[in-house]
Write a structure and sequence with these properties.
heterodimer; A: 367 residues; mainly alpha; two-stranded antiparallel sheet; two-stranded antiparallel ribbon; 4 strands; 72% helix; B: 257 residues; alpha/beta; six-stranded mixed β-sheet; four-stranded antiparallel β-sheet; globular
C-alpha cells in the first residue's frame, strides 16, 4: 500500500531514517511542490500572491517559534522582537554598506536575532513555564524600547528604514541582467524558497539527536540531564534556532514591504505567532503552516463575511462593516484560541492526522 | 579495562535531617554491589549523590580515580555513570527506539548546522549509534515493541526500556534504583538475567538497590546495608543475612536475639 507501513520494508537504517517512509507522502510533497512553485505563480493573481506571501512569511516565523515552544517547551512572547532585530540588522547593513548582497544581509539579520534570542534565553537556566514567558516579555519590551529610542538604529522619528528592493539575476535579450524585485510574484519565489529551506532544516533537525534532546528537555528535564543532556545548552540552541528563523522572518517582512518598521513587530504580533503555534499544533511543522494560514486568512475571510452576511442580513454598507471589523477580528481571534484549547488542544495538525489515520486503516475502523 | 567507582565518606543532609553520613563503598567491574536497607535508609540519596543529582555535603566520589564529586548530573553521565529511576522516568510520548537512542544522545556530536543539513555527517553518526541501540534492543528482547510509544507499555516493559536507555550509553557504572519494583516473579527473573549478562559480558560495574531479598541474596556479590543514613553492615550475602544488626534494623530487637 502506498499510504501504510505494511509491506514497505526497509533494509538499511538509512532508509528507516528517511523523512517520508511510505510512497504517498513523497508523491504528495512532489505534487505540493509543483503546485507551489509552478501552478500558483503561473495562475495566481497579484492580490492572491500578496496574501500567499504574507502566509509564507508567517509560516516561517511560526515554524521557528514552534521549534522553541512546541518542541523544547520554552514559552517565548518575544518572538516579534527577535524579528525586529533581524529586520533592523538587515536594514542597517544595507544602509551602511550599500553594496552588500541582500542574501548576506538576510543571514546577518538571522544571526543577530539568534544572538539576541540566546541572550534573552539565558534566564531559562533558572526559570521555566510562565516565569520564563514573563522574562521573554521583558525581551520584547526592551528591544522595542531600544528601537524607538536609538535614532541611528531605527532611522529616525518614524522608527523605519526604507531599503532598496532586492535584485535577482534575469536573462533579458540573451544577456544576464540584474532585475529588481517589484511584483508580488518575485517576492513569492523569494519567500517560498526560503520557507522550503526552513521546513527542510526543521525536518532534519527533528530527526537528529538535537530533535530528540529538545523533546527530552520538554517532557522530563531531570531525566534528560541524568542521561547526559546539557539542558541549558539545549535550551539556548533552541532559542538560537527559533530566533534565527524569527530574524529571517523579519528580514523577509522588510524586503516585502521595502521598509523596516517597528510596528510590524509589536507584542500583539508575538501573541499572534504564539496563537499560530497553538491553533496549528504545538511542535508540528505542518501545524505551524496551518496556523499561519489560519491567522493570516482570518481577517480576510471575516471581512468578506461581514460585508456579505452583514450586508444581506443587517443591511450594513461598506463603512459600517469596516467600522465593526477590528472588534470582530479580536473577538474571533480570542474565541478561536479558546475553542482550540478546549476542543483540540493539539491543533489543526492533529485534525489532519486524524483524517490521514482514518485512511491509513481504511476500510477498517481501527487497527 | 576494568572500572571502579569509589564513594568515600559521603554525607548529605536536608535541613536538619541527616539522610546520609560516612557512606563508603566500592563498586567494580564484574561484580554486583547491592545496597539494601529499610525505607528512608538513604539508598536513593546515595545513588543521587553518585549520579550528581545532589552534591554531597562531605566526602568524595571517584570514578577510575577521577574525582567527580559535585559535578552536574549531565557531566557525571558523560563520565560514564548511567542510572535508572525508582519511578520510571521514560519519555512517554517517544517510541521505545527513540528512548533508547536518547541514552546515546550525549555521544553524538553533530552541531546545529550538521543536524539541519543531516545528509552526510549527522546521518552517518545517527546510523552508527542506531546500530548500537538496536543491539541493546535485541539484547533486552524488546524488538517487537520498539516503535511503540514508551508511555503505552506496562510497567514491567517500561522498566526494561529504561534499563535499555541506561545500557545504550555503554556506561562504566550502572546504577539501578529498584529495577524490579512492582514486577511479578517472571519479570523479575528476566531482569535478573539481563543484569547478570551485563556484568558477565561487559566491564560495567553494577550498583543495585532492591527490596526483594531473594533477588539481592541470589545475584549480588557484595551487600551494603544502610539504616538511617549510616552503613550498619556489609559483606557477602551470607554474612549480611546472619548479621544481628541487620535483622534488628529490619525486624526489631526481639527478632535479633
Amino acid at each position: 500500500m502506498i499510504n501504510r507501513e505494511t509491506g514497505t520494508f526497509k533494509r538499511t537504517y538509512a532508509e528507516d531514517l528517511a523523512i517520508y517512509r511510505t510512497p504517498l507522502p513523497k508523491i504528495a510533497v512532489a505534487v505540493i511542490a509543483f503546485v507551489v512553485f509552478v501552478i500558483i505563480p503561473w495562475q495566481g493573481s497579484e492580490y492572491w500572491l500578496g496574501i500567499l506571501n504574507l502566509i509564507g512569511i508567517a509560516s516561517l516565523g511560526a515554524l521557528g517559534l514552534n521549534i522553541l515552544v512546541g518542541r523544547t517547551g520554552q514559552i517565548s512572547v518575544g518572538h516579534a522582537a527577535f524579528m525586529s532585530v533581524g529586520a533592523y540588522t538587515a536594514a542597517v547593513i544595507l544602509r551602511e554598506f550599500p553594496g552588500t548582497h541582500w542574501i548576506l544581509a538576510m543571514l546577518g539579520g538571522g544571526c543577530a536575532a539568534a544572538l539576541a534570542g540566546m541572550f534573552f534565553g539565558i534566564p531559562s537556566l533558572r526559570i521555566k513555564g510562565l516565569y520564563l514567558a514573563v522574562s521573554t516579555l521583558a525581551a520584547q519590551l526592551i528591544i522595542e524600547w531600544i528601537i524607538n529610542h536609538w535614532p541611528w538604529l531605527s532611522g529616525g522619528a518614524q522608527g523605519s528604514i526604507y531599503i532598496q528592493a532586492p535584485t535577482f539575476p534575469w536573462i533579458e535579450d540573451g544577456a544576464l541582467v540584474s532585475r529588481k524585485m517589484e511584483a508580488n510574484l518575485h517576492y513569492y519565489y523569494l519567500i517560498y524558497v526560503v520557507l522550503a529551506i526552513g521546513i527542510l532544516f526543521a525536518l532534519n533537525l527533528f530527526r537528529s539527536h538535537l530533535g530528540r534532546a529538545f523533546i527530552a528537555v520538554r517532557d522530563r528535564d531531570i531525566a534528560a540531564e541524568i542521561i547526559g543532556i546539557n539542558i541549558f545548552r539545549t535550551k539556548l540552541v533552541a532559542f538560537g534556532i527559533a530566533s534565527f528563523y524569527a530574524g529571517v522572518t523579519g528580514v523577509l517582512y522588510t524586503y516585502f514591504y521595502s521598509i523596516a518598521n517597528f510596528e510590524s513587530f509589536t507584542l500583539l504580533i508575538s501573541i499572534q505567532f504564539l496563537a499560530m503555534c497553538i491553533i496549528g499544533g504545538l511542535g508540528s511543522i505542518l501545524g505551524s503552516i496551518f496556523g499561519a494560514i489560519f491567522i493570516t486568512m482570518l481577517p480576510i475571510v471575516l471581512d468578506f463575511m461581514l460585508r456579505g452576511v452583514g450586508g444581506a442580513v443587517f443591511g450594513w454598507d461598506d463603512a459600517a462593516a469596516s467600522a465593526i471589523m477590528p472588534q470582530w477580528n479580536l473577538i474571533m481571534f480570542g474565541g478561536l484560541i479558546m475553542f482550540f484549547l478546549v476542543v483540540e488542544p493539539d491543533g489543526l495538525a492533529k485534525m489532519w492526522r486524524n483524517f490521514t489515520d482514518y485512511f491509513r486503516v481504511w476500510p477498517f475502523p481501527y487497527v | 579495562m576494568s572500572n571502579r567507582l569509589e564513594v568515600i565518606d559521603a554525607a548529605k543532609s536536608f535541613g536538619g535531617v541527616l539522610a546520609l553520613s560516612e557512606a563508603t563503598l566500592t563498586a567494580e567491574s564484574r561484580r554486583i554491589l547491592a545496597i539494601i536497607g529499610p525505607n528512608g535508609a538513604g539508598k536513593t540519596t546515595l545513588i543521587n549523590v553518585v549520579s550528581g543529582v545532589y552534591a554531597p555535603d562531605a566526602g568524595r566520589v571517584l570514578l577510575n580515580g577521577t574525582d567527580i564529586t559535585g559535578r552536574r548530573a549531565f557531566e557525571v553521565a558523560r563520565h560514564g555513570i548511567a542510572r535508572t529511576f525508582q519511578n520510571v522516568a521514560l519519555f512517554a510520548g517517544m517510541t521505545v527506539l527513540d528512548n533508547i537512542l536518547l541514552g546515546r544522545n550525549m555521544l553524538m556530536k553533530s552541531g546545529v548546522l550538521k543536524c539541519g543539513v543531516f545528509w552526510g555527517a549527522a546521518r552517518s553518526e545517527e546510523i552508527e549509534h542506531r546500530r548500537r541501540a538496536e543491539e541493546v534492543i535485541d539484547f533486552l528482547n524488546i524488538t517487537d515493541i520498539r516503535t511503540a510509544p514508551a508511555g503505552s507499555l506496562p510497567l514491567g516493559l517500561q522498566k526494561r526500556v529504561e534499563l535499555g536507555r541506561a545500557l545504550a550509553a555503554d556506561p562504566k557504572v550502572l546504577l539501578l534504583d529498584e529495577p524490579m519494583g512492582g514486577m511479578n516473579l517472571e519479570e523479575k527473573e528476566s531482569i535478573c538475567r539481563y543484569v547478570l549478562d551485563v556484568v558477565e559480558m561487559s566491564d560495567t560495574a553494577v550498583i543495585l538497590i532492591e527490596h526483594d531479598m531473594g533477588v539481592v541474596m541470589d545475584i549480588s556479590d557484595h551487600i551494603i546495608v544502610l539504616d538511617q543514613g549510616r552503613k550498619i553492615s556489609e559483606g557477602t550475602p551470607d554474612h549480611v543475612r546472619n548479621d544481628k544488626v541487620v535483622i534488628e534494623a529490619y525486624l526489631g530487637k526481639e527478632h535479633a536475639a
